[in-house]
Amino acid sequence: MAQTNKRGRMALSAFLMPAGYDRHAWQIEGSRSEEFGTYGIHKELAQEFEKAKFDAVFIADTVGTNFIREHDLSMGNPYEPVTALASLADATKNIGLIGTISTTFNHPYTVARQLASLDVLSGGRAGWNIVTSSWGNEAYGMASLPPKDLRYRRADEFVKLVRELWSAWSDSAIINDRATGRWVDPDLIRPVHHEGEFFKVDGYLNVPRSAQGHPVLVQAGQSSAGLNFGADVAEVIYTVNPELENAIAYYKDQKGRVAQKGRNPDHVKILPGLIPYVGRTDKEARDLLMAVVEHMDMHFVRNWFQETNDVKVDDLDFDLPIPEERFDVYKTSTKGSRILAYRNYALQPGITLRDVLINASSAMGHILMVGSVDKVADQMIHWFESYACDGFSVNTPSIPGALRTICDLLIPALQERGYARRDYDSSTLRGNLDLPYPEAWDKAEADNRSVAAF
User: Helix (H, G, I), strand (E, B), or coil: what is residue 13?
Assistant: First the structure.
């Protein structure tokens, strides 16, 4: 019998990474790294996550970077999100298809058209992970990225314009009248006339609205500007919160921001990143982790950790603790919350520099859970019931080993306890995430007229 719970089901999104989440995972014997960049493994992973009843798969974008040349197949994603997700629309039936597109390197009309097409062709399963980008400017001929405040101003106008384009068609616009030769009612497609700080658009999309109205909006900003932007537009928020108490505080704060914007906090799903190493026993889970650790070049990881977090560790022995004062940089760093989380982990009894480096390489600031299926399921439920999240963005640490244990052990355990779906409730991403249908312009205007008349 399924376990009853206070909150219902978790929302579960799967990071689609054919090489595994850890940069060293592709080196494991049997890893399928020879298939990296091909359609077959990309399709198979999406189908496995759909079989396990995940709400969505997610493809990130790492344009203009050196990850591939540095042999980091986890971050060096060779799948351009829109075309890659479009290839999965016919290979899957119910699972959501979320992809990253930058508002800094693109134009609203193009993005609106691409995603509207993906949404229609997939039957209403598209999602847009909105980013302002932290790198990649050289690929677009930019000497540097614009200042953060300018990037977010551009993003705000960008998203509002995209949503206006998506809403330009009435849900009743298609009349398909063969007798009169009218396929649409032209009065029910409203051209957009926009001239703002960054963009000027006159026209409308040649793509009708989908079964879910328009794609689900996803965001992952952690800065103050990112938090406010997410509260304003996001329906799903990916977060980096590896510590329970901080995650609870973040959840409360961000839901409060959403409410202050006049939005329903229940219509925004907060999903921290999770890296689960799961086995039937603790030893099996640990063995999965150690299979990756065996390929870690600790000197490389130490240098990477120091450069990424500005915490000096290159003079320390791998098997000794990190002095607490080395983490004092968290007080002034823009990466303060992540560095503080590393400090709190490093100060636990018996934790060495090597342990911190393994954690950092494996989780990259996200939640790392290693243990038996019951232990990991219990931890996930504790986070969920503590209102630290509405579910998780699951990052599969290695392929195929960790994929098998997540789909064959962890998800069934959550289903048995009543925290994961056994089947899809809807054919759309919105339907499965319990998100509201966004009204088209004519319905919204009619409602406004009715309220004014009343």
Answer: strand
Do the Cβ atoms of 354 and 368 come closer than 8 Å?
A: no
Distances (CA, A) of 142 to 9, 82, 104, 365: 44, 23, 11, 29
Instruction: Give the CA distances from residue 290 to residues 141, 151, 155, 285, 398, in Å, rounded to whole numbers and listed in that order.
Output: 42, 41, 41, 9, 11
Q: Specify the fold of 11-286+368-453.
A: TIM Barrel (3.20.20)
Query: What is the DSSP secondary structure assignment for residue 349, as one 8-state letter?
Result: T
Alpha-carbon distance 123 to 211, whole Å?
A: 6
Contacts of 378 (CB under 8 A, 6+ apart): none
Q: Which conformational region is residue 133 in: left (phi greater than 0), alpha (psi within -120 to 50 degrees), or beta?
A: left
pLDDT tens-digit map of 297-344? 999 999 999 998 999 999 999 999 999 999 988 888 777 778 888 999
Cα end-to-end span (Å), the chain: 50
Domain range summary for the chain, segments of one domain joined by +: 11-286+368-453
Could you read off the pLDDT of 40-61 as tens digits, one per residue?
A: 999 999 999 999 999 999 999 8
Alpha carbons 194 and 206: distance in angstroms, whole number: 17
Whole-prediction pTM value?
Answer: 0.92
- In 3-state terms, the chain is what percent helix, strand and coil (to 5)? 45, 15, 40
What is the spatial distance between Cα 146 and Cα 137, in angstroms, rounded to a whole number?
9
Rounded to whole angstroms, the maximal C-alpha distance in the chain is 82
| Per-residue pLDDT tens digits for 370-380 | 999 999 999 99
At 269 the three-state DSSP class reads strand
- Vertex 229: Cα angle to 227 and 233 (nearest 5): 120
**pLDDT tens profile 276-289:** 999 999 999 999 99
